[in-house]
Amino acid sequence: MTVHVLALVGSLRRGSHNRQLADATAAHAPDGVRIEIFDGLGALPFYNEDIDADGAAPAEAARLREATAAADAVLLFSPEYNGTMPAVLKNAIDWLSRPFGAGALGGKPTAVVGTAFGRYGGVWAQEEARKAAGIAGARIVDTVSLAIPGSVTRFAELHPQNDTEVAEGLRKTLEALTTGAAAA
Questions:
Q1: In whole angstroms, what is the distance from residue 59 CA to residue 183 CA?
Q2: What are phi and psi of 179, to 5 degrees?
Q3: Residue 102, helix vs strand vs coil
Q4: Which stretches of 40-164 are assigned E, i.e. beta strand?
Q5: Other residues' Cβ atoms within 10 Å of the Cβ of residue 100
């Protein structure tokens, strides 16, 4: 059985270290784990109940919901913007929380990892993302944590994929997520 993990990256910047981290996750995924990196969060309109009425969500929101519903687990990659998660990631969580009580994140094993320039690696942003996803109905996997500090210098010449400490942290995260998915 293959465990399908949907990755949502909270940075839209070309060359984003969090996107590189998502790519590293796909490269280090063990046999039986498939990572799908969702592209399209930048095209997602801000959540507005007026445009999410009667099952007529915008196409990009419907695509995000379908991809999430089809996944066995979700892995959020969050940089830290002004002490919290980026708006694009929060917006995705908002879309996935609806319809209330039956959103695509409902009961889905979900973990949060990331890297940031600061010395704590985006811990505050990850805490906020866990909180928002949990309120949206996700089953938060908090037995592992991966907050990588100093992204600008650490990954200046070394891709996260080639960092052994990062690879080990990603392996542990995927192990916890797949265990959570199997339990579901």
A1: 32
A2: -65, -40
A3: coil
A4: 73-77, 109-115, 139-140, 146-148
A5: 9
Question: Beta strand pairing status for 3-9 and 33-37?
Answer: parallel
Its pTM stands at 0.95
Which amino acid, 137?
Answer: G
Q: What length does the chain have?
A: 184
Tens of pLDDT, residue by residue over 2-40, are 999 999 999 999 999 999 999 999 999 999 999 999 999
Q: How far apart, in Å, are the Cα atoms of 80 and each of 53, 98, 126?
A: 32, 25, 8
169's tokens: 């942290």
Residue bearing tokens 């392996």 = 171
pLDDT digits (tens, 9 = 90+) for 100-153: 889 999 999 999 999 999 888 899 999 999 999 999 999 999 998 999 998 888
